[in-house]
């Protein structure tokens, strides 16, 4: 494991609207020295599959306007093929590979996504991660109930900015179908500290956000995040 004081690759997983993007926003706004000392995150870059997914939808609308065939999605923006969820994971891995290749002093890479059982769950996502991601990876899972995910999804939606990381949302029916059922507990049941992925032991910690400490992005979030990431660092650097 690395000798430096920061994670190489930190993955944030959760249901939609659980608080992943709010945690990243909080880290962005924490001074660098404090961020390293408290959270083991230095200068960092993000890889989020939502902009990739949204670009597909925008491209399909353009193609349709031009009288051409949509490539990725139906008119109501459902994927034409469930395997496209795994294509997104492979895109994440490709972006990760390029960042590691091109940076002499690679910053912490923060990966963010959500997966529900309906489209393969975390099991399918993990099977499509590349080895260079797995070799560097630690996972922070932001835990909220389905009901809390639904509440915050409704609250954050800004119809004027559907492409926004912090303000996009799904219709209730689609959120329920895609994300009510998740396989996180099944994936992590065999081991309280490590997920076994393609032969790799990947450390993980659960960040309980059922009481929503992330929305305010204040001291309560900082304290809980510090505790979680220090626990994760002990596993990662053990």
Give the helix/strand class: alpha/beta
State the CATH class: Alpha Beta
Distance between the termini: 8 Å
Element-by-element helix/strand order: EHHEHHEHHEHHHEEH
Folded structure, characterized:
This protein has 238 residues and is of the alpha/beta class. The protein has ten helices and six strands; from the N terminus they run βααβααβααβαααββα. Helix 7 (146-156) packs antiparallel against helix 8 (172-179). It has one domain (9-236): 3-Layer(aba) Sandwich (Rossmann fold).
List the helices and strands and how they pair.
Elements: E1 9-14, H1 20-28, H2 32-39, E2 44-48, H3 49-65, H4 84-102, E3 108-113, H5 121-127, H6 131-134, E4 137-143, H7 146-156, H8 172-179, H9 184-188, E5 194-197, E6 200-208, H10 219-236
Parallel strand pairs: 1-3, 1-4, 2-3, 4-6
Antiparallel strand pairs: 5-6
Helix pairs in contact: 7-8
Structural descriptors:
Rossmann fold, 16% strand, alpha/beta, single chain, 238 residues
In short:
The chain has 238 residues and is of the alpha/beta class. It has helices spanning 20-28, 32-39, 49-65, 84-102, 121-127, 131-134, 146-156, 172-179, 184-188, 219-236; strands spanning 9-14, 44-48, 108-113, 137-143, 194-197, 200-208.
């Amino acid at each position: 494991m690395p000798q430096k004081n920061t994670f190489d690759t930190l993955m944030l997983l959760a249901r939609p609207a659980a608080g992943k993007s709010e945690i990243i926003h909080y880290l962005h706004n924490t001074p660098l020295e404090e961020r390293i000392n408290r959270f083991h995150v230095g200068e960092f870059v993000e890889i989020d599959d939502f902009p990739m997914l949204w670009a597909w939808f925008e491209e399909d609308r353009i193609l349709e306007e031009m009288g051409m065939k949509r490539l990725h999605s139906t008119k109501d923006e459902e994927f034409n093929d469930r395997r496209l969820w795994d294509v997104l994971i492979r895109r994440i891995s490709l972006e990760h590979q390029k960042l590691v290749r091109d940076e002499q002093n690679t910053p912490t890479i923060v990966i963010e996504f959500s997966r529900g059982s309906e489209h393969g769950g975390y099991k399918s996502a993990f099977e499509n991660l590349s080895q260079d991601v797995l070799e560097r990876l630690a996972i922070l899972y932001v835990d909220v109930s389905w009901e809390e995910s639904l509440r915050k999804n409704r609250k954050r939606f800004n119809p004027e900015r559907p492409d926004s990381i912090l303000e996009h949302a799904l219709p209730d029916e689609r959120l329920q179908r895609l994300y009510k059922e998740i396989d996180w507990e099944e994936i992590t049941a065999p081991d309280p500290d490590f997920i076994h992925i393609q032969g790799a032991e990947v450390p993980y910690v659960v960040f309980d956000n059922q009481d929503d400490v992330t929305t305010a992005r204040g001291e309560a979030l900082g304290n809980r995040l510090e505790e979680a990431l220090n626990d994760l660092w002990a596993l990662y650097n053990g």
